[in-house]
Amino acid sequence: MSTKERSGCPISLSLELIGDRWTLLIIRDLAFAGKRHFREFLQSDEGISSRTLAERLQTLVDKGVLTRSDDPTHRLKAIYRLTEAGIDLLPILATLGAWGS
After folding, report:
1. Domain that holds residue 49
2. Which of 10, 17, 96, 101 is most buried, by the most CB atoms less than 10 A from its CB?
3. Are 16 and 1 within 8 A, CB to CB?
4. Range 80-88, long-range pairs (CB < 8 A, 24+ positions)
5. One-character DSSP codes across 2-43
6. How far apart (Å, rounded) are the C-alpha atoms in residues 43 and 52?
7. Is residue 2 a part of any domain in this protein?
8. Helix, strand, coil in percent for the chain, rounding step 5
């Protein structure tokens, strides 16, 4: 993902974060499929690579869309959750899903 903004346009700024192929699918899996762990995201039908997934998750955490916390049941796992900013994207996902069907 680019670190340089294209313009000050709110739509352009939003697309800087969520406009790639994978980001909304990660958010979809969190919100609608109940996925919380790295390996669960890797099992999605779309076939994201582990490197791309790691990069997207880190960006989403850095930008405040997700949180990352240690899993208390397994010391090597992290749990990802939507923040309020991430939850605010859910109506957009629902609209995209309806439009796409």
Report:
1. 10-100
2. 17
3. yes
4. 80/30, 80/36, 80/37, 80/38, 81/30, 81/36, 82/27, 82/30, 82/31, 86/27, 86/30, 86/31, 86/60, 87/31
5. -SS-S-S-HHHHHHHHH-SSSHHHHHHHHHHS---SHHHHHT
6. 13
7. no
8. 50, 10, 40
User: What is the value of pTM for the model shown?
Assistant: 0.86
Those residues with Cβ within 8 angstroms of residue 23's Cβ, 6 or more apart along the chain or in another chain: 17, 56, 59, 60
Tokens 């939003």, residue? 14
Structurally, how many domains does the chain consist of? 1
Reduce the DSSP state of residue 90 to 3 states and report it.
helix
Q: What is the CATH number of the domain that holds 84?
A: 1.10.10.10
DSSP reduced 3-state for 74: coil
